[in-house]
Amino acid sequence: MKFKNNMYIKNGVLIKYKGNDKIVNIPKSVNEIGSSAFSIDIKRRQWTLSELQCTIETINIPFCLKSLCNGSENYLWNEPFLMCDSLVNINVEEGNKYFTSIDGILYDKEVSQLVYCPRNYNSKTLNIPNTVIKINDSAYSYNYNLEEIIIPKNIKVLESWVFSCCEKVSKVELNDNIEIIETGVFNNCINITSITIPAKVKTLYATFMGCFNLEKVVLPNELEELFGDVFINCCNLNTIILPPNLKKIGTQTFNNCEKLEKIVIPRSVEKVGYEAFVKCESLTIFCEVEEKPNEWDEKWNIDNRPVIWGYKN
Predict the structure, then answer these.
(1) Going by fewer Cβ within 10 Å, which terminus of the chain is more open, N or C?
(2) Are 17 and 7 in contact (CB under 8 A)?
(3) Exposure on the CB side of residue 24, measured as CA atoms within 13 A
(4) DSSP code string of 158-190
(5) What is the DSSP string of the chain?
(6) Rounded distance, CA 115 to CA 137, Å?
(7) What's the rounded Cα separation, in Å, for the pair 12 and 52?
(8) Cα–Cα distance, 59 to 195 (Å, whole number)
(9) Phi, psi (rounded to 5 degrees) for 182
(10) Which helix (H) or strand (E) holds 52?
(11) What is the mean pLDDT of residues 209-228?
(12) Percent of the chain with pLDDT strictly greater than 90
């Protein structure tokens, strides 16, 4: 690679930046930022310490930038910035047709999508314009300062990993309009202690992995599926009521929920996955059905936790 001003640019694409500046001005010749421009190349297996350290605090995007990562105009994805630990501001030059920035946060031009909030953005709360209807995947992941999440009413989908690894977050309020919570949304948010899932949500994926201070979760009555790993390593989880319409409990859903003492599996549950309650060393399982249904995995209760069949509440 031939670098100029610490940048390798090819055919209008910023492929790599290797400097240690605090402020980076992307040249006007750049119309796309590559996926690893400011981060490590995920295809490699080893990196130097300097490659893992990013000193950038401000990135200034020119008016001609059209795309992030894939070459499509207005393609909105934040992967180039995910390793920028010190990043505080992203600014977009006036006149850009595809992107804009408000107070250092990157949006699409219409301010309908929040593309990315810098990791070191100095705010304890979400400050999202009323026009935003989508917060992109990983938009707030690894945010160092966020403490409170109150989702605006016009957001109906929480995209994958959007708040993962926000270690200071302790308060979460989800609006009643949310219909979908995708994979990993709150993974490793280690200071969340309780959360209520909105009534319209019917499926949870690997939503709370590593939330080891999570104690209480309120699930909606219409929830139908708990996919694998939803509560894995939620070591302090002690209060959860499975809803009456639940149909599926996935593989290792409650793995290592060591403080959970009681769970009632409603008659509606058709499938329970492999090792669904593994390492739940305090748990007694109460099943409303009289015997194990055929669709339940043979090793659903791999640790042979006590089971009460035909339970009536």
Answers:
(1) C
(2) yes
(3) 27
(4) E-TTTTTT-TT--EEE--TT--EE-TTTTTT-T
(5) ---BTTEEEETTEEEEE----SEEE--TT--EE-TTTTS--TT-S---HHHH-----EEEE-TT--EESSS-TT----GGGTT-TT--EEEE-TT-SSEEEETTEEEETTS-EEEE--TT---SB----TT--EE-TTTTTT-SS--EEE--TT--EE-TTTTTT-TT--EEE--TT--EE-TTTTTT-TT--EEE--TT--EE-S-STT-TT--EEEPPTT--EE-TTTTTT-TT--EE---TT--EE-TTTTTT-TT--EEEE-TT--EE-TTTTTT-TT-EEEESSSS--TTS-TTTTTT---EEET---
(6) 8
(7) 25
(8) 35
(9) -85, -175
(10) helix 49-52
(11) 97
(12) 81
pLDDT of residue 246: 98
Tell me how far apart the alpha carbons of residues 203 and 157 are, in angstroms, rounded to a whole number: 12
Q: Tell me: the pLDDT tens digits for 57-102?
A: 999 999 999 988 754 444 445 577 877 889 999 999 999 999 999 9
- The helix/strand/coil state of 249 is strand
What is the sign of the dihedral through the CA atoms of 71, 73, 78 and 80?
Answer: positive
pLDDT digits (tens, 9 = 90+) for 107-133: 999 999 999 999 999 999 998 999 999
**What is the pLDDT confidence band of residue 36, given thresholds at 50, 70 and 90?**
confident
Tokens of 172: 């979460």
> What are 2's two structure tokens?
């031939």
Which one-letter DSSP state was computed for residue 223? -
Per-residue exposure over 156-182, b if at least 16 CB sit within 10 Å of its own CB, e if not: eebbbbbbbbbeebbebebeeebeebb
Predicted local distance difference test score (pLDDT) of residue 35? 79
Domain ranges of the chain: 1-116
Binning pLDDT at 50, 70 and 90, where does residue 180 land?
very high
Confidence of residue 18 (pLDDT cuts 50, 70, 90): confident
The answer to whether domain 1-116 has CATH 3.80.10 is: yes
